[in-house]
Amino acid sequence: MKIVRKDFASDKLQILWTLIFMIYMGFATSVVMNEQFEHLNEYVNPLVDFLLVLYAPLMGLTFNRRSFRYINEDSYTQMLYYYRSLPVPAYAIFISRIINAIIAYVINGIVFFGVAYAIANQMREAVDIASYAAFVISWIGIGFLLTGFYIYWENMGSGKAYLGKTLILMIVTVVAAGTLSLLGYSMFKFVMDSAMRWKLLSPVMWGSLIIGLGGMLLMSRLTYIRQQTRDLS
Q1: pLDDT tens per residue across span 77-102
Q2: Model pTM?
Q3: How far is CA 96 from CA 87, 88, 92, 138, 232, in A?
Q4: Are 30 and 115 within 8 A, CB to CB?
Q5: What are phi and psi of 117, to 5 degrees?
């Protein structure tokens, strides 16, 4: 928790920048979600799947100096080097990262999905709060799973390698969303249908949350093991 408090105290404007970005993303996504919801049983727009999968792991971040400067300064490697020079247990770094991610998901999830729900009037008229909460938690579960990979990339390579892998993930997301759309499927529709039918008992929601949390913890454990032998020079 000392590491978490230090991260937030070191850049007091990070919450402001993060909230601004989440409001913008929520507004942009609400337009696509609303349009898709108007024609939910007619056609599938791959853009809504792409945006939700793209933004899901970003909700686990706060936009601080480290996240903005990771390419030029290799800030994640510098962070690891700094903590290795102190009597800080290696596991504490990863536990603090998970706590940071959970805090970010709570704040960003409320803002991002709250803005989307407030603006997407067609969706709001058809989806009650309980169903929408199940929908939101389902996507946060997906975000947890992807965050595990981000944690690994942050700690196991340079800033440029981290950028390259995130770009590859974006390309895979675009291809997957387009392929599912051509086949007549949509993750958005699948998750929403389950949420509207089962509400907070949605098996998709609970499955996504359990798999997502489990995946993030397993990737953090793997990163913790491999990071101890990484050469930071």
Answers
A1: 788 778 777 777 888 888 888 888 89
A2: 0.89
A3: 15, 12, 6, 23, 20
A4: yes
A5: -70, -35
